[in-house]
Amino acid sequence: MTVVRGLIGVWLAVTVAFFLLRALPGDPISATLVSAGVSASLIEDRQRALGLDQPIGFQYVTYLGQVSRGDLGASLITGEAVGGMMTARAGNTLRLAITAFAVSLVGGVALGSAAALSQRWGPALRILIDGLVAIPIYVSATLVVALGGIAGAWGAVAVLGMQGAGVIANVLCLALIEQSGQGYILSAYGKGLPRWAIFLRHRLRPVVYSIVPVAVLQFGFLLGGTVITETVFAQAGLGQSLLDGVLRRDYPVVQGWVLLMVVIQSGIQMLGDGLAAWLDPRIRERVM
Amino acid sequence: MARAVLVGLLAMVLVGGWFAPYDPLDTRPERAAQPPSGEFWLGTDTLGRDVLSRVLNGGGLTLLLGVGAACVAVICGVVLGLGRGLGGNAVRSVLSVIEVVLLSLPPWLVALVFVAGMGARWESVIWGVGVTQIAPFGRLVGVWSASVSRQPYVMAAQSVGAGRLYIALRIILPNMLPLVVGAACSTLSYCLLFSSGLTFLGLGGSLSSPEWGVMIAEGRTAIRYAPWIALPPALLLTVLIASLNAVGRWFSLRGWSSSGDFGR
Fold it and tell me: Are B194 and B69 in contact (CB under 8 A)?
């Protein structure tokens, strides 16, 4: 059932993207060739060669047939195969996403716990969390480059990691504060358990499920390629191919991006649901 | 505290332009990139324009983009959510198809398609960003309205023969208003982040008046030797978004406590 739902979702997204892109004014061939001063007949030849003169319904069916055979087509501008292009770009994005996500997770759990539990630093840390959530990505990127002198991939990791840490810490901190008055915390202290054991088993364990939805969202957002971060730190990833693809009307590239994105998103969503059920027995009971 | 900051910032953005000491568009190469002084309180940018005047004038457009996008999201989202929760079968199925289609499209794709389709202008930023948030907002409204509609006072209204539209607008909507306002605040802060990100990338087009995202982009290249150009708009934008988040949280908490726990 989930698989069928997932496939329908993929088909829907690809279809909507297909027609949405073609509804845009301007087409890739005229855009690139007219500016280069090429004659009208040459442009028509080129459009015929790429199949852009066919009726749109025919193009759509052809495209679906191609995709079902695993062929994503080639870029209309460079002629590069979209599949290969995505794989190359995805490597960059994947490395960035996983590193930044690891930073967010570790930083977010540490920051959120400290903000909720530390008497002394709590209020200051909560302000810090609010700041991390609110600061626009391009502002933190600018600051990281200017003040930290960190450019390139590590700069991108720092910026995205900080933002993710803020988002995760925010949720965890609220959950921990809400939990403070519970009887089981008092009883754990009453048993004279060491503080680390109380923290891990009795405080963190019951609320850790609450960060799963935001963590899933964050990871999905990172895997989509982050247009602004990639631009500022000059990391050619998936976000860049989307930006260039839409602006240059490179239909196959954008369609390939959408396809990849929808598959990744539904994959992560399923992973997140499984993780939440594993961490939270209440969800497990409801599902099974 | 956050509310006071928010009100102060909004007041500054709305009427600050009147108090600007200089013309924000007046370029004078001979006074480029001057540090803050008695004459130019926040210094001048690389084209010699007064940063304070630009900051005071620029907030309006930044806020307009965010508020415009948030209005698109909130109005369409409320209609979508209420219709999905309370409409007849035909309305319901049409709206759910719309929702599924909207949810299937990645936000950046939608925003970029609007920018590409309508041209790099500020209207396209409003539509592009707003449309991405309709379905998420509609979902929230749908969940809440479904919970409210199970409350006894809704049944009471039904039993005295109140119409569906009356119940939706006069009974259900007012009862979940604090929640809607809370969510609208966070939607607004998201829209501000997103739309100023687009203008930062230059996708808002060439603007006739200053805008914070554009100012930060311009100041970014000079940040090492003239940090006073990018920092004021960056700081104001961050504080604006943080205070919006805090106010949104306050409204949501109030919504939860005043409504018992129907929405949990």
Answer: yes
Q: Give me the residue label for tokens 């089981």.
A: A184
Tokens of B154: 């809704």
- How many independent structural domains does chain B possess? 1
Assign A38 to helix, strand or coil. Answer: coil
Residue with tokens 């805008």: B211
CB-based contact A21 B104, cutoff 8 Å: no
Q: What is the value of ipTM here, to two decimals?
A: 0.81
Enumerate residues 6+ apart whose C-beta is below 8 A from B128.
B69, B110, B111, B112, B113, B114, B115, B198
A9 contacts in chain B (CB < 8 Å)? 104
- Cβ pair B189:A134 closer than 8 A: yes
* CATH number where B171 lies: 1.10.3720.10
CATH architecture, domain defined by A82-287: Orthogonal Bundle (1.10)
pLDDT means over runs of 10, chain A (288 residues): 76 85 74 61 70 77 81 77 83 86 92 85 87 89 80 83 91 84 79 80 81 84 80 82 84 86 83 81 64
Q: Global pTM? A: 0.85
Grouping H, G, I as helix, E, B as strand and the rest as coil, residue B160 is coil
Query: How many interface pairs between A and B have CB atoms less than 8 angstroms apart?
Result: 99
Of B108, B238, B245, the CB nearest to A139: B238
Domain boundaries, position B182: 55-263
Residue B228 lies in a domain: yes
Domain boundaries, chain A: 82-287
8 Å CB contact of A254 and B109: yes
- How many Å apart are CA A65 and CA A176, to the nearest integer? 51
